[in-house]
Amino acid sequence: MRYPGQAHILTAIDCIIFGFDGNNIKLLLIQRALKPEKGKWSLMGGFIEQTETLEQAADRVLKQLTGLQGVYLEQLKAFSDPQRDPAERTISVAYFALIDIHNYEKQLSDDYHAEWFLLKDKPTLIFDHQQMVEDALQKLRYKAALHPILFELLPPKFTIPQLQSLYEGVYDSTFDNRNFSRKVLSTGLLIKQKEKDKVNSKKGAFYYKLDKKKYKASFGAFLNFIPNPNKLIL
Amino acid sequence: MRYPGQAHILTAIDCIIFGFDGNNIKLLLIQRALKPEKGKWSLMGGFIEQTETLEQAADRVLKQLTGLQGVYLEQLKAFSDPQRDPAERTISVAYFALIDIHNYEKQLSDDYHAEWFLLKDKPTLIFDHQQMVEDALQKLRYKAALHPILFELLPPKFTIPQLQSLYEGVYDSTFDNRNFSRKVLSTGLLIKQKEKDKVNSKKGAFYYKLDKKKYKASFGAFLNFIPNPNKLIL
DNA sequence: ACAAAAGTGTTCTCGTTACACCCATGT
DNA sequence: ACATGGGTGTAACGAGAACACTTTTGT
Predict the structure, then answer these.
(1) Are A28 and A47 in a shared domain?
(2) How far in angstroms lies nucleotide C4's C1' from the CA of residue A125?
(3) In a domain, A207, yes or no
(4) Do B226 and B159 fall into the same domain?
(5) Number of inter-chain CB pairs under 8 A, A vs B
(6) Is the same domain home to B183 and B117?
(7) Predicted structure pTM score
(8) Nearest residue by alpha-carbon distance to C1' of C20
(9) How many Å apart are CA B175 and CA B229, to the nearest integer?
(10) What is the gyration radius of the CA atoms in chain A, in angstroms?
(11) Which domain holds residue B69?
């Protein structure tokens, strides 16, 4: 110990895991395995180890729960109220993850007694996890208004109506379908496929794929995906 | 210790302190007092104590160095490379502060061998502080493009040309003065004063004050302060 | 035939940009 | 008088918003 006399504190990460079931935004929660608050609903988390970064810890925890690696993961912020964990002082750095809900391994999630909840009727969460979810949703809305981030929640092939319903779910709002499709197509990020999705409508909607190159290239630009952003609560 | 077997880690905060001298953006740096890297240029920082939040630690450290309280302070992100501090593993949560450069107490800063540097010719910094400054500048640019955050760097009374030169400094760019003044005045955030600043020009420029009520009310809105945001590197 | 969702075009408005001249004052 | 920076107006353009009907197909 080279900085004597300083406090050493437990450090954890917690993951706010968002998914999209085709109609609604969902949140993956687990039933906590440790005391205190054992059995209560909680975000998936874990303590950081001596030789890993926070990012690595978040990746590890996410893989444990979902079997997924390389998913979109972004640091939200650190939560540091000294009383936030009643058992022992713990600083937690929250990360939010966007995953294609169809890819995760149900088996693993079952091991953790995990469940997908609609954002609207999620259970009461332990500690400050409630706040973490609210902050994550706010940041997601903020970021998705400007950057094409929500594609991370969709499967490789998706339709414009699906995409619209995703945006509408995230902003708890409705958009004009003509303006919406024009706007997303004008970005040049979407490649039209030959096949149609015939499941969700009689007429069928064309599938699109994301142009990954353009996606990466234009990720930093301000794209203004959302109509009237100032009228929504961001 | 209620979570036995978990690693307890030193946690620090570091402050990226921005100021504006009327012409250029500056950064307040100190000469590090501790080993290792004693005497080298560094961000002001400190370890978090057992009973305070990260925010409180950042406030405390900022007060120590500048004598200022209640300044704009925002969490940037946590830096967690296990090797980032060669002496001992330390996770640091970086905060960036925007202060009115005229308010800080020179005396205190002298105690820490502190100095204001132009962003452009700042010295090499210790550890990952270089990265912290870059990330902070990027976030500042990002946020200031949408929210009226840069007023925090100005004195209570300021002129439109001063404000413009501040924005130009932050974005290392130049803007059309006619469009700029129209844009900022159209927000309704500025209250024209009777007096003029006669220091910076012969004709003199009217002072303005920030309408604090409207400032707080409209802080969340997307204001689009910057022309051609997609042409700048944000 | 009908219901249900997909797909598409036009007009209007308003914000953004580009651009150039006159004003007030200290020297 | 002149140099310096402050302050203002306008026209052209383009992005965003509002708005409704036709198409396809499963039942």
Answers:
(1) yes
(2) 39
(3) yes
(4) yes
(5) 99
(6) no
(7) 0.94
(8) B178
(9) 12
(10) 19
(11) 10-145
Q: Which of A53, A81, A89 sits opposite B50 (nearest CB)?
A: A89
Domain CATH number, residue B192: 1.10.10.10
Mutate to test the interface with B, among A49, A90, A91 (most CBs of B within 10 A): A91
* Structural domain count of chain A: 2
Residues B68 and B100 in one domain: yes
- In this complex, the residue of A34, A53, A82 whose CB is nearest that of residue B80 is A53
The rounded distance, in Å, linking the Cα atoms of A150 and A72 is 10
DSSP string of A68-105, one letter each residue: --S-EEEEEEEE--TTSSSSS-EEEEEEEEE--TTTS-
pLDDT digits over B112-142, tens only? Answer: 999 999 998 999 999 999 999 999 999 999 9
**Residue numbers in B 96-155, CB below 7 Å of strand D:** none
Q: Which chain A residues are within 8 Å of B144, Cβ to Cβ?
A: none
pLDDT digits (tens, 9 = 90+) for A79-133: 999 999 999 999 999 999 999 999 987 788 788 999 999 998 999 999 999 999 9
Residues of A in contact with B3 (CB under 8 A): 10, 34, 47, 87-88, 90
Question: B34 in contact with A at a CB cutoff of 8 Å?
Answer: yes
> Domain boundary residue among A87, A114, A145?
A145
Identify the sign of the CA torsion B193, B195, B198, B201: positive
Q: How does pLDDT run across B1-15, given as a tens digit for each residue?
A: 689 999 999 999 999
Q: Which residues of B touch A55 (CB under 8 A)?
A: 80
Two tokens, residue B12: 């620090």
Q: Please give the Cα distance from B185 to B163 (Å, whole number).
A: 11
Give Cα B48 distance to the centre of its chain.
21
Nucleotides of D under 7 A from a protein CB: 3-10, 15-20, 23-26
With beta carbons less than 8 A apart as the criterion, state whether B61 and B141 touch.
no
The answer to whether the Cβ–Cβ distance between B49 and A7 falls below 8 Å is: yes
d(CA A67, CA A17): 13
